[in-house]
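hey so u asked for the seq, here:
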Amino acid sequence: MSLPIVAIIGRPNVGKSMLVNRLASSQNAIVHDEPGITRDRTYQQAFWRDRDFLVVDTGGLIFDDDTEFLPSIREQAIAALQESQAAIFVVDGQAGPTPADEEIAQWIRQQSIPVLLAVNKCESPEQGIIQAAQFWELNLGEPYPISSIHGNGTGELLDELVNHLPPNAEIPEQPEINIAIVGRPNVGKSTLLNTITGESRAIVSPVSGTTRDAIDMRVERNGKIYRLIDTAGIRKKKNVEYGAEFFGINRAFKAIKRADVVLLVIDAVDGITEQDQKLANRIIEEGRAAVIIMNKWDAVEKDAYTIYEYETHVKDRFYFLEWAEVLFVSALTGKRVEKTLDAIDRAAGEHQRRVSTAVINEVLQEALAWHSPPATRQGKQGKIYYGTQVRIQPPTITLFVNDPKRFNDNYRRYIDRQFREALGFTGTPIRLLWRGKRVREVERTINPATRV
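ran it, structure tokens below
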């Protein structure tokens, strides 16, 4: 990552994620009154005075407990500190210094990195000075009283922080391909992210629901920048209670919306479920390009016909997603994972592809020659005058007709199929907009230059 990094560390439930959201002027980090919500390290961009930097949120540090995810959370926090230029140690001003704070402070003093001590939950400026004074005993320098909720004191904290960060460099902007990795819980999304990036970026566990935040990771290959976004596993709505999982799933849906390409990860052992189909529909509704990843292929018992049987199964269950490329991979062993970025390149290219009006109308003329539009019971036949592509991401084609109501679903699917066969658009949905004559007449009165 090109920007300097600032690690936010501390014990559980002291308000680290709230501070990250305050510094980044966002609501991307999950904030919930429950210890252990944040597990992986997540990055957000921040700015103060003349400095751009990244703040990395980390899970709560506990050194004397190795249950559940705590060892992995420690590894993620240590990794964040190692790649940072500075750190902010967050403590709870209302609780006062605790043995856990003292243990973290002792560990921090052994690190060769500038650390600022932020005493959070100091909502009253007068009382905050008294609360902060208790933390001089941690021997980490001046404690800064702040309120992550209200923003009190964060300006003074940032004024000191930027003194430890390098000045902004002239970094040429490079376009990024945003890739959301989505799927049901425990299908191998985090393992796939780690395998693609070549590092333990996300915590991997057989426990369902390990990933909660949407985790961004940048990868560069052949001069292209990819931003991979690991997301929480998405279960059926009726099974999700309000809390960490609810917030994680909302962030997964937001990740789909801001992605260029979505990797829909399927457990090859379980096969395609109804929930997988609902996720595929969500991708289509958002107009995102997609690649279907059949993961855990190493765990499937195979013979010479297995892959063909699976391909048939995928086509049957994802008949509405037939345009998406399918990869059979093993994120655990790395088999065929290298093909993923190639498939992403193809899908992203088609997602922003533009076709000339002349070519579109050639396809239309041939389609009309093979199959004329249907006629109503009164003998009135539909007419397609011409078509033109009006948008990309996804490719959107407007068809100007005499009356959209005269074109039934079967004929609309026929036209869609003709465009696919002639123009490809592998990896991306295409949208057809049927515009009637009356609309065109209204447009012409508003803008005389509108084409007839």
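The radius of gyration is 27 Å. Residues 29-39, 201-214, 439-452 have pLDDT under 50 and may be disordered.
lmk if thats what u needed
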